[in-house]
Amino acid sequence: MQLIETIRQDLAKIREKRPLVHSITNLVVMNETANAILCLGALPIMAHAKEEVEEMVAMAGALVLNIGTLEPDWIDAMELAGRRANELGIPVILDPVGAGATKLRTDSSKRLMENVKISIVRGNAAEVATLAGLSSEIRGVESISASGMTGTAAREFAAAFKCTVAITGVTDIVSDGKNTARISNGHAMMGKVVGTGCISNVIIASFAAVEPDPFIAATGGLVAFGIAGEMAAKEAPEKPGTFHTELYNALYALDSTTLARLARVDVSTEGGS
Amino acid sequence: MQLIETIRQDLAKIREKRPLVHSITNLVVMNETANAILCLGALPIMAHAKEEVEEMVAMAGALVLNIGTLEPDWIDAMELAGRRANELGIPVILDPVGAGATKLRTDSSKRLMENVKISIVRGNAAEVATLAGLSSEIRGVESISASGMTGTAAREFAAAFKCTVAITGVTDIVSDGKNTARISNGHAMMGKVVGTGCISNVIIASFAAVEPDPFIAATGGLVAFGIAGEMAAKEAPEKPGTFHTELYNALYALDSTTLARLARVDVSTEGGS
Amino acid sequence: MQLIETIRQDLAKIREKRPLVHSITNLVVMNETANAILCLGALPIMAHAKEEVEEMVAMAGALVLNIGTLEPDWIDAMELAGRRANELGIPVILDPVGAGATKLRTDSSKRLMENVKISIVRGNAAEVATLAGLSSEIRGVESISASGMTGTAAREFAAAFKCTVAITGVTDIVSDGKNTARISNGHAMMGKVVGTGCISNVIIASFAAVEPDPFIAATGGLVAFGIAGEMAAKEAPEKPGTFHTELYNALYALDSTTLARLARVDVSTEGGS
């Protein structure tokens, strides 16, 4: 499949070019996401002061906005960095963590969607459903139920918001409004470690830093991270502490042969072949 | 013993109900405490913005207030969340980290004790002694000495402040002013990893989310975590890095049979049987 | 060599006296640096509120200022804590993370150098070159190139700023303007884990808390940490997750015999031995 070949090349490009991935993210996962970026082969930078985010993002290959432990000042910084990234053509990945759980989270997510051109929205079903105006149930930041976040709904969301959307769950769904991918990679142990959703954002961002098509970047990121999860689970079944450690080993060890061998993606194209 | 049987049932309830544990905590242990909650079987949420804490805590089964890297704004948020939890009957666990080390920490702890009905205070001997007005010596956040924090002092503290107090150390002491438990579980390696005190808070909070009696919740949490520490130390004696990883594995693996077999608790009741 | 013998004694002193190391540091490495301090044998404290830093630092044996995720309020707190440390004769270690990458970072580093008497500056070549007014290239916080940060430049920097400078890289360089050490300890895997630079700061600070000569403290810290890196790499070659865990095990296990056996330091003295 051409898609997998492109993803393989993107992985090689990340390691060759070492793009800087700038994250304005939550306090819970800073170290973990930075290490994931480094293990994959890109370079992490965390910077959130309004006084410097515009200057810092200008050096980056991609920008990640994650509202997991948001404060108003941080959202302001995200907006500043996002607008500057837009000016420079740098892709912006948004994780609307906990949208639907509190008004602040829902409003902040919508504000960022309105004021910044988001390249890729990555969330769980409840968070994306909230942004789509559908009903959902969320416990803290955990999706409990979200009615109707099917592939069709993802495609409609992407078309309406003119972005790529990546909804992670047992099967991940990525859509850019025209193409829709269903990714079966990943492992249940990934739900036993805090911040694997946040790590998926930065892996996607690392791909987006070298891959101009956001649909391919999001699909590539989720395939790569899903396979890393499978590799880690082989080393540490039912041991979340050890699994967490093995996840970094796997991101570092992941090579393009393994990626091609283990990738499980189905793509459908609207109106297409 | 009936107490152990209740603790076993509470552990099962945590895993069945998956209560949300809301923490407003320090920047050093956010990831670690969130992972501990998840490994035990509950769901973590970290949220500290004044704009959302009242809404977030309303979904939670317990609230943890931890002043380890306090700022005035965060204490305000703790008070807001704590008052709302009180209105809704949600138990509040306070860790007065470093009370006695600086005026800000002592004052903030006292302010939270006064303005929020605290269900369980969890601290080391020096921190609790400070709140009790006794002399103590603390190096940063490490208790060096605390005169008189015996079981009797714990019982008097609990009676005076109308709360349950849990003082962790070589032997942990829990008292609600009437019942006093001495828990001998735990392992010296727990002192070689940063944040094990903070993890004990969230394990206690997970129990408090399903157990209405704070004395049982605090005792259950410390027994469960102490046993997890013993299990981890078996896998990684004298290796703090590996021990840290094994602690999460142990919290995840801990079952009610092991809990009953390894629990070491003595309870005395004032005026009682 | 007398230097190695002194470093050995300093390591023993850290474990005997357990000095408090106060860090005002970035949000990415708080847990990791605190655990490194604890594993080495000292006691960590993180406190950044302007209301308490002066009181907290008064208890400490050393103060670490690290601008990795700086905000203006944090820089103010760093300056307050630094000035108080100066009054009390407590050594201050500065890591100008990302100086050269943004104006905020360059200006904040220079401001701290001007307003606080810094005992030891620890950075990568690009960061130190920026402070020295030399040209450099930095990607986020990663040194890409820095012209002329040779041993001679380090010596001149130290002489000009009246401090000790420690420049970490493949070979670490430490100079106090008179003596210059080249340290060949360390391992390439240390570059595969986020925050090893930050950990080197706190190991140096732990030595500075017991060793009055900053040149010896900086050299000792880098030798000790470099050897720990070598020990960890033996356990986990090419596995950054496991290597990270083993780094803490190694800091804990490091003994003075191993230190003396593996230390690789060359010292040259201006005007000669």
Topology:
The structure is a homotrimer of 273-residue chains.
Chain A: H1 2-17, E1 20-24, H2 30-40, E2 43-46, H3 53-57, E3 62-66, H4 72-88, E4 92-95, H5 103-115, E5 120-123, H6 125-132, E6 136-139, E7 142-146, H7 151-161, E8 164-167, E9 172-175, E10 179-183, H8 196-208, H9 214-235, H10 240-253, H11 256-262, E11 265-269
Parallel strand pairs in A: 1-2, 1-3, 3-4, 4-5, 5-8
Antiparallel strand pairs in A: 6-7, 8-9, 9-10, 10-11
Task: Summarize the structure in words.
The structure is a homotrimer of 273-residue chains. Chain A is an alpha/beta fold. The first copy, chain A, has a single domain (2-267), classed as UDP-N-acetylmuramoyl-L-alanine:D-glutamate ligase (3-Layer(aba) Sandwich), CATH 3.40.1190.20. In chain A, 50% of the residues lie in helices and 18% in strands. Chain A has eleven helices and eleven strands. Chain A has helices at residues 2-17, 30-40, 53-57, 72-88, 103-115, 125-132, 151-161, 196-208, 214-235, 240-253, 256-262, and strands spanning 20-24, 43-46, 62-66, 92-95, 120-123, 136-139, 142-146, 164-167, 172-175, 179-183, 265-269. Chain A has a nine-stranded mixed beta sheet, sandwiched between helices. Chain A has a two-stranded antiparallel sheet with strand order 6-7. In chain A, helix 1 (2-17) runs antiparallel to helix 11 and helix 8 (196-208) packs across helix 9 (214-235). The interface between A and C is medium-sized, with 31 and 32 residues.
